[in-house]
Amino acid sequence: MDNWEDMKIVAEQWSKQGIEFVQQIPSPQLYAAIALLLLATIWLFSIRLFRRTKSNTVLLSGLSGSGKTMLFYRLRDGSSHQGAVTSMEPNEGTFVLHYENIKKGKVKPVHLVDVPGHSRLRSKLEEYLPRAAAIVFVVDALEFLPNIRAVSEYLYDILTNASVVKNKTPVLLCCNKTDKITAHTKEFIRKQMEKEIEKLRCSRSAVSTADITNDFTLGIEGEVFNFSHCHNKVTVAEASGLTGEIDQVQDFIREHVKP
């Protein structure tokens, strides 16, 4: 009981001293201190809130003609949207994935962005990469070999982008049009792209550091490149936007944009 009384007396003394100290501070300084404290509290709260709010943006990227737009419409409403469309602006929309419309309960919508694949329009991709929860990089499995260099360079630039590396943004290498008999398999495409990216690593590392435009380098020094060396996770899947065989793409999206 005595201890409690002693603690109470000490607390009252500290409280009195604290009030006296505050009263001695000039008003402008006191107001400035209170304002600074409030700003710091708001800033910390905003950071915590931002960290809790995960992005629902998924990017569809790849060369023109790879089938990105068809995949976009398959995911949105189940339509095939026949024919290639070269757009000057991204196709984008926020919606529940088409196959999930039959599900009961609340499902988180996905903000899907089909980024133009033309080389002159790729700057659009830079605008979206910092807020991407995941990236689906679409490759034409039919016309893969004639475009292997361009495809590999495009993917290399994505994998060495500062936002992708720092956020460890997952990438799905989506081998599209695999319903065709002459389409290359995902394993063939993966191995050939790893070889091509290895060549890019060697050629770009030989360039003066003043001329390097990429934010980060890929791979492990002294080892031949493979996708497991990337800062972020890269997986490979097969799909067909034409026939609607896109289960692996949908699963990848839902893995990174939780329902």
UniProtKB/TrEMBL annotation:
InterPro entries: P-loop_NTPase (IPR027417), Small_GTPase_ARF (IPR024156), SRP_receptor_beta_su (IPR019009). Pfam families: SRPRB. It is found in: Endoplasmic reticulum membrane; Golgi apparatus. The keyword Lipoprotein applies. The chain crosses the membrane at residues 30-50. It comes from the Eukaryota. Keywords: Endoplasmic reticulum, ER-Golgi transport, Golgi apparatus, GTP-binding, Lipoprotein, Membrane, Myristate, Nucleotide-binding, Protein transport, Receptor, Transmembrane, Transmembrane helix, Transport. Belongs to the small GTPase superfamily. Arf family. This is Signal recognition particle receptor subunit beta. It comes from Camelina sativa. The gene is LOC104747724.
